[in-house]
From TrEMBL:
Main localisation: membrane
ABC transporter domain sequence ranges: 339-573
Name recorded for this polypeptide: LuxR family transcriptional regulator
Membrane topology label: Multi-pass membrane protein
Gene Ontology MF: a single term: ATP binding
SMART domains for this protein: AAA
Length: 576
C-alpha cells in the first residue's frame, strides 16, 4: 500500500479538536479527581496524630471526611470517564466515516489492485485501535501524567531527600520504557499487516468459494490459510513476549525504588530528621504513584502499537483518486445522448496503449455494438464514458460537453450500466432495483421491473418486492439477476446505456426474457453494447470491430459481412 505518510499522532488533531467540549468536561473531572487524591494523602498524614494520641472522636471525624472525599473522587472519576469515552468514540466514528467516504471516492483502478479484506480491516479494526488509543490518552494518560506531576511535587514538599532517593531509578525506567515502546511499535505493525492479510484471504475465498469447491481445492486453501495464520500468530507472539519481559523488569525497578525509600526513611527517622507521620503520608503518596506508573507504561505500549494502525488508516486517506472532479465542475444537464470520442488515447501502463487514438461520433439513440477478441479493449472503451478511468489524451464529449468538465455524479446518473455479472446488495428486491436511492416510488420500481420482464418472477417470490436477497443475491438465478440489473437501469432512465452482454448461457426461456427486456430498454437511448449474441449485433445500427485498441471496421452487420474481413472472420468463429 502506498504512499507512505508521516508517522505520528498529529494527523489525528483535526478529529480531536471538534471534541473540545467533551474533553474540557472530562478534564474538569480529572482535575477534581487529582485534587481529591491529594486531599486523601494530606488527611492520611493528619490521621497519624489522633492515632498516636488515641483520640477516637477526631479519628471518627477524619474518617467521615475521608469517606466524603472518596465519594467526591468517585463522582469526578465518573465525569471524566463519561466525557472522555464520548470524545474518543466520536473521534473514531468521524475517522471511520471519513475513511469510508474517501474509499468511495477512490477510482475503480485502485480497487482492482487493493485487497478487499485489507481495506475492511483498516476501516474496522485499525480505526478501533486508533479510537482506543485516543480513549486511553484522554482517559488514562492525562490523569496519570497529572498525578505523576502533582504527587511528586507534594512528596518533594514533604521531604525532598526522600523523593530524590526514590527517583534515582527513574531515568533507567524511562529509557527502558522507551526502548520497549519502539520495539513494540515495530512488532505491532508486522502483526497488524499479517492479520489484515488474513482478512484479505478470507474475503477472497468466501467470494470465490464456488471455485474452491469446484476445484476440490479445500485442502490447499486450508493449508494456505494455516500458513498465513501461523505467521500472524508468531507476529502477535513476538509482541506479547516482549510485553511479558517488560512488565516484570519495570515491576522490579519499582520494588527497588521502594526498598531504597524504606532504607533511606529508616535512616532519617533514626537520625531524627523525619517524623513517622510525615513518613506515612509520604508512603501513601508513593503508593498512589504505583498505579499511574503502571498505567503510563501500558499506555505507552498501547500508543506505540496503535501508531501502526494510525499509519495504516492515514496511508489510505493519503491516496488521491485517479479520477478527480474539477473544483468548478458543472452539473451536466439532461442530455440527448450524443457521445463523441475525439482522438482518445488510454493506457493502464505507460507505453502500452489500450485505446489508441479512437475518434467516434454516436448520435442520440444510436445502438453501437463493440466486438473484438478478448483483450481488444472493449471494456476499457466503455469504462472511459462514465470516467471510471480518464483518458491520457483526447476528449470525450456528451452533447458537446467535455465529460472532464462536469461533476461525476451528474455524468454517471445519466449513464445506465448493465454489467455481465450483477451484484446484489443485502436488502429487498425493491431496494436492489432502486439501488442508491434512499427514498423511491414503489410504483416506478414495479413499472421498471415490468419493462425488464422481472415483475412476474418477483411477484411469485414469497414477499414479492420485499423479498430480502443475500449480499450476493444467491437465491436468484442468473437470468433473474440480469433482469434485476436491467430494471435498475430502466428506473434510472438514462439517455446513455452501457451493456455488457453476459457470456454465460441461460436456458432458452430465460434467454428470450432477458433479450426481450434488453430490446425494450435499448429503445430510444444511445447504447454501447459489448455484444456476445448474434441477435444483438444483427439489430445494432453500427458495429465497431476493435483490435489492439483501434477501430478496424465499422458498419452494419450486412455491410461488414460483405467486406469479408475481420468481422466476417469473427462472425464465422463466434456465431456460426
Ligand atoms: N485494470 C487494468 N490494469 C491493467 N491492465 C488492464 C486492466 N484492465 C484491463 N487491462 C488490460 O487491457 C487490455 C484490454 O482489456 P479489456 O478488458 O478492455 O478488453 P476486452 O476487449 O473487454 O476483453 P474481454 O472481452 O476479454 O473482456 C487487456 O490486455 C487487459 O489485460
Amino acid at each position: 500500500m502506498s504512499p507512505k505518510t508521516e508517522s505520528n499522532y498529529r494527523q489525528l488533531l483535526p478529529y480531536i479538536r471538534p471534541q473540545w467540549q467533551n474533553i474540557v468536561r472530562g478534564f474538569i473531572g480529572i482535575v477534581g479527581y487529582v485534587f481529591a487524591t491529594l486531599a486523601l494523602i494530606y488527611l492520611v498524614q493528619k490521621l497519624s496524630i489522633p492515632f498516636s494520641e488515641g483520640d477516637v472522636i477526631a479519628i471518627a471525624q477524619l474518617a467521615g471526611i475521608l469517606g466524603a472525599i472518596f465519594l467526591l473522587r468517585g463522582f469526578f472519576q465518573s465525569v471524566q470517564d463519561i466525557y472522555m469515552v464520548k470524545a474518543a468514540l466520536q473521534v473514531a466514528f468521524n475517522l471511520r466515516k471519513r475513511v469510508y467516504g474517501h474509499l468511495q471516492r477512490l477510482s475503480l483502478g485502485y480497487f482492482e489492485t487493493a485487497k478487499a479484506g485489507d481495506l475492511s480491516y483498516r476501516v474496522t479494526e485499525d480505526v478501533d485501535r486508533v479510537g482506543e488509543a485516543v480513549h486511553k490518552f484522554l482517559h488514562d494518560f492525562i490523569p496519570c501524567a497529572l498525578q505523576l506531576i502533582a504527587i511528586p511535587i507534594y512528596m518533594v514538599y514533604l521531604s525532598w531527600q526522600l523523593t530524590l532517593a526514590t527517583l534515582t531509578i527513574m531515568p533507567v525506567m524511562l529509557v527502558l520504557i522507551a526502548w520497549f515502546g519502539e520495539k513494540l511499535q515495530k512488532y505491532s505493525r508486522r502483526s497488524q499487516n499479517q492479520v489484515s492479510d488474513l482478512s484479505a484471504i478470507l474475503t477472497e475465498i468466501f467470494s470465490g468459494i464456488r471455485i474452491v469447491q469446484a476445484f476440490a481445492a479445500e485442502a490447499y486453501e486450508i493449508a494456505r490459510f494455516s500458513k498465513e495464520a501461523e505467521v500472524a500468530m508468531k507476529a502477535k507472539y513476538s509482541t506479547e513476549r516482549l510485553k511479558a519481559i517488560q512488565i516484570p523488569i519495570i515491576g522490579f525497578l519499582q520494588a527497588l525504588s521502594f526498598l531504597i525509600l524504606l532504607f533511606f526513611a529508616a535512616w532519617q527517622i533514626s537520625a531524627g530528621s523525619l517524623t513517622v507521620g510525615k513518613f506515612f503520608s509520604y508512603l501513601s503518596g508513593a503508593a498512589l504513584l504505583i498505579d499511574p506508573i503502571g498505567h503510563i507504561t501500558s499506555n505507552y505500549n498501547l500508543f506505540k502499537e496503535a501508531e501502526a494502525s494510525v499509519d495504516r488508516v492515514f496511508e489510505l486517506l493519503a491516496i488521491k483518486p485517479a479520477v478527480e472532479e474539477q473544483f468548478d465542475a458543472l452539473t451536466l444537464p439532461r442530455v440527448s445522448g450524443k457521445v463523441e470520442f475525439r482522438q482518445v488515447n488510454f493506457a493502464y501502463k505507460p507505453g502500452e496503449p489500450i485505446i489508441d487514438n479512437i475518434s467516434l461520433l454516436a448520435e442520440p439513440g444510436e445502438v453501437i455494438a463493440l466486438v473484438g477478441s478478448s483483450g481488444a479493449g472493449k471494456t476499457t472503451f466503455v469504462n472511459l464514458i462514465p470516467r471510471f478511468y480518464d483518458s491520457q489524451a483526447g476528449e470525450i464529449l456528451i452533447d458537446d460537453i467535455k465529460i472532464r468538465d462536469v461533476t461525476l455524479n451528474s455524468l454517471r446518473r445519466q449513464i445506465g450500466i448493465v454489467p455481465q455479472e450483477t451484484t446484489m446488495f443485502s436488502g429487498t428486491i425493491a431496494q436492489n432495483i432502486a439501488f442508491g436511492q434512499s427514498e423511491f416510488d414503489m410504483a416506478a420500481v414495479e413499472e421498471a421491473a415490468k419493462i425488464a420482464n422481472a415483475h412476474q418472477f418477483i411477484s411469485n417470490l414469497p414477499d414479492g418486492y420485499y423479498t430480502v436477497v443475500g449480499e450476493r443475491g444467491v437465491n436468484l438465478s442468473g437470468g433473474q439477476r440480469q433482469r434485476i440489473a436491467i430494471a435498475r437501469a430502466v428506473l434510472l432512465n438514462p439517455r446513455i446505456l452501457i451493456l455488457d452482454e453476459a457470456t454465460s448461457a441461460l436456458d432458452a426461456e430465460s434467454e428470450s426474457l432477458v433479450q426481450n427486456a434488453l430490446e425494450r430498454v435499448m429503445e430510444g437511448r444511445t447504447v454501447f453494447v459489448i455484444a456476445h449474441r448474434l441477435s444483438t449485433v444483427r439489430k445494432c445500427d453500427r458495429i465497431l470491430v476493435l483490435e489492439k485498441g483501434q477501430i478496424v471496421e465499422s458498419g452494419t452487420h450486412e455491410e461488414l459481412l460483405a467486406l469479408k474481413r475481420r468481422y466476417a472472420e469473427f462472425f464465422a468463429k463466434q456465431f456460426s
